């Protein structure tokens, strides 16, 4: 039995890290201390002023453990690692974990490649970044490969050793083809160095080179080649335009701004590499109740730079933080070079710090408004609907629809909403088995019966295995059934529920003569609904989604049926070849319009069969 007061008296007066556990042995908080004895005891002293969040955390502590280290710096490193491992509920955590792309030049290879990577390593390769836009990285790599004709394959290449014939990239002048063994490494490395110079900020060299090549091609009257170089120049110009010059010192730095209200915080980070702003990103911070802006900023720096593979030489902050000297020491240790935290008061850096703050404030306000709008249209709409029909505790709603063409290929759809949002992983399609002809009521009876019978079977299996029903499981029953129709469809649903002894509320969506929803049918009464209300908008979304899902399924079955019936008439087309045609072409029309060569390009279709197919459609 863990006696907290007794264990508190045993705490050492040394630096270390402590872990608070709840009764289920979950780690709910990780902290560091210069003096474990003083710090951990402070949580349990009534005289110590605590925020509401800390009070809640302390009330849940069942036992604690601690790890003694030699210095406060070691404690910081260990604290960050443990928070990353356990993600404790009461620590300030980044809500969005991001990994940024880098550009890697594989200088450890005789013929280097330029790649997009998410991690950096201490190897012979050269890394550029991080970049906030994966699209910009892709564009840059494509530009450099096309301009300098560098290889993009992973073949092993060595001078004097022919490994392969040149691929298409060689023939369209996008690669020198070192795989032939005929490209001198020195010549190839000059091109690689040109790409490196561009990423180091030497923009003028690549633009000048491309312009010269474009003019040379024009003089030779090779206008196709000239156009290619002109397009490369335009790509280079677009990429260069993305990089805003911030100063001329060519330093790497991050500029951090923060905005905070009572419950949320947003931190904005501007990335400056080689004196150029290459992008920016914002992060939402959770569990900030009772914390000052400075405390949130300090926690962000520790969490963020534990997770990012790159630490710049300078980090510009909007305000001083308490443990600045120790964090500088830690970051310098992580980087292997001196890292400086600074709070500029005047000049260009101060303006950028203010810009980062304004951006963080803008994101915080926009997100608050967005969240409020979304909650009004989702949870708020469900609450409105619940009040309208006199229900409480409605979260999961299931809606059903039937689709057919004069009774041909009857299908049913089931869509699911939770908290007013679609749960697409729980959507289900039903191909009607027992009904022929256009009988929507009979089709709905089959769909609902199969849905809930399947649900009972899953519940039985899960209970036997002592498991909970997960998302996507039929065993998760709805709080409300929404039927796409009035009294008739509601009665079908109630009949199924009565037969299966299920007590689930049912609501019908009644339509007018123009097929627009005019009200709800509940307990034998039609209830009118305000067309401008969130509940009405939500019901319309549910109806449209159920209808769309059913129609798409019906169309896909009808299309496959049509393809099957036509192809079955062609001599020599059996199941295997029919499948090959259906995989290779989107529709019967596409097969009809295909040439003999295109048809014969499929693995299962020999030339003579391709000719028969072509003749079948073209006579």
Descriptive notes:
This protein has helices spanning 4-8, 36-42, 52-60, 72-86, 134-148, 168-171, 185-199, 203-219, 223-242, 293-307, 324-335, 347-377, 379-389, 440-464, 487-499, 534-567, 575-584, 588-593, 596-600, 607-618; strands at 16-21, 27-33, 63-68, 102-105, 114-117, 126-128, 244-245, 253-260, 265-273, 276-285, 314-316, 340-342, 396-405, 408-418, 421-422, 428-431, 480-483, 506-511, 517-522, 525-528. The chain folds into five domains: 4-86, GIY-YIG endonuclease; 102-244, no CATH class; 253-373, Nucleotidyltransferase, domain 5 (2-Layer Sandwich); 382-557, 2-Layer Sandwich (Nucleotidyltransferase, domain 5), CATH 3.30.420; 568-618, 5' to 3' exonuclease, C-terminal subdomain (DNA polymerase, domain 1), CATH 1.10.150.20. α8 runs antiparallel to α9. The radius of gyration is 33 Å and the shape is flat. It starts with a helix and ends with a helix. The protein has 619 residues and is an alpha+beta fold. The chain has 20 helices and 20 strands. The model is unreliable at 242-248 (pLDDT under 50). The strands form four sheets. Strands 13, 14, 15, 16, 17, 18, 19 and 20 form an eight-stranded mixed sheet that branches. The chain has a six-stranded mixed sheet with strand order 7-10-9-8-11-12. A three-stranded antiparallel sheet has the order 2-1-3.
The overall pLDDT, averaged over residues, is 82
Major beta sheet summary: 8 strands, mixed
First-last Cα distance: 89 Å
Level of helix content? 40-55%
According to CATH, what is the topology of the largest domain?
Nucleotidyltransferase, domain 5
Structural class category: alpha+beta
Rg is: 33 Å
Number of domains: 5
CATH superfamily heading of the largest domain: UvrC, RNAse H endonuclease domain
How many helices? The count is 20
Number of strands: 20
> Unreliable stretches, pLDDT < 50, 5 or more residues?
242-248
CATH architecture of the largest domain: 2-Layer Sandwich
Percentage of residues in strands: 15-25%
Shape annotation: flat
| CATH structural class of the largest domain | Alpha Beta
């Amino acid at each position: 039995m863990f006696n907290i007061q007794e264990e508190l008296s045993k705490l050492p007066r040394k630096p270390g890290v402590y872990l608070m556990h709840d009764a289920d042995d979950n780690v709910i908080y990780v902290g560091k201390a210069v003096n474990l004895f003083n710090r951990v005891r402070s949580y349990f002293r009534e005289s110590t002023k605590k925020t509401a969040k800390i009070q809640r955390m302390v009330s849940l502590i069942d036992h604690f453990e601690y790890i003694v280290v030699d210095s406060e710096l070691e404690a910081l490193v260990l604290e960050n690692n443990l928070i990353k491992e356990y993600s404790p509920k009461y620590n300030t955590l980044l809500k969005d974990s991001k990994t940024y792309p880098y550009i890697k030049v594989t200088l450890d290879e005789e013929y280097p490649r330029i790649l997009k990577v998410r991690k950096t390593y201490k190897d012979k390769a050269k890394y550029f970044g991080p970049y906030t836009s994966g699209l910009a990285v892709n564009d840059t790599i494509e530009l450099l490969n096309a301009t300098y004709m560098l290889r993009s394959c992973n073949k092993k290449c060595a001078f004097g050793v022919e490994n392969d014939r040149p691929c298409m990239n060689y023939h369209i002048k996008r690669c020198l083809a070192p795989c032939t063994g005929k490209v001198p490494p020195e010549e190839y490395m000059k091109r690689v160095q040109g790409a490196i110079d561009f990423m180091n900020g030497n923009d003028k060299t690549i633009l000048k080179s491309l312009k010269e090549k474009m003019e040379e091609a024009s003089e030779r009257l090779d206008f196709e080649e000239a156009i290619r170089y002109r397009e490369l120049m335009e790509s280079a110009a677009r990429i260069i335009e993305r990089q805003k010059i911030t100063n001329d010192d060519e330093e790497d730095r991050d500029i951090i701004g923060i905005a905070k209200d009572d419950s949320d915080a947003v931190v904005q980070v501007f990335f400056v590499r080689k004196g150029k702003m290459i992008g920016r990103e914002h992060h939402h911070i959770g569990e900030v109740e009772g914390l000052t802006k400075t405390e949130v900023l300090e926690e962000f720096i520790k969490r963020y730079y534990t997770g990012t593979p790159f630490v710049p030489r300078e980090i510009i902050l909007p305000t001083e933080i308490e443990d600045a000297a120790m964090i500088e020491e830690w970051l310098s240790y992580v980087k292997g070079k001196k890292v400086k935290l600074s709070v500029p008061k005047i000049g260009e850096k101060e303006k950028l710090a203010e810009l980062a703050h304004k951006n963080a404030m803008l994101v915080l306000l926009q997100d608050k408004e967005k969240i409020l709008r979304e909650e009004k249209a989702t949870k708020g709409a469900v609450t409105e609907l619940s009040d309208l029909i006199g229900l409480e505790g409605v979260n999961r709603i299931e809606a059903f629809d039937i689709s057919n063409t004069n009774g041909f290929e009857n299908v049913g759809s089931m869509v699911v909403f939770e908290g007013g949002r679609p749960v697409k992983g729980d959507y289900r399609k039903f191909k009607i088995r027992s009904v022929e002809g256009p009988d929507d009521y009979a089709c709905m009876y089959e769909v609902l019966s199969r849905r809930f019978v399947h649900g009972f079977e899953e519940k039985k299996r899960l209970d036997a295995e002592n498991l909970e029903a997960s998302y996507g499981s039929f065993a998760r029953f709805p709080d409300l059934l929404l039927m796409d129709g009035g009294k008739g469809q509601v009665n079908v649903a109630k009949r199924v529920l009565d037969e299966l002894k299920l007590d689930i509320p049912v609501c019908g969506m009644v339509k007018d003569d123009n097929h627009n929803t005019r009200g709800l049918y509940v307990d034998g009464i039609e209830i009118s609904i305000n067309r401008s209300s969130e509940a009405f908008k939500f019901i319309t979304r549910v109806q449209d989604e159920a209808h769309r899902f059913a129609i798409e399924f019906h169309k896909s079955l009808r299309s496959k049926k049509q393809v099957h019936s036509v192809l079955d008439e062609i001599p020599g087309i059996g199941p295997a070849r029919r499948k090959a045609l259906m995989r290779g072409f989107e529709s019967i029309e596409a097969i009809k319009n295909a040439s003999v060569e295109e048809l014969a390009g499929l693995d299962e279709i020999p030339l003579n069969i391709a000719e028969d197919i072509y003749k079948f459609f073209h006579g």
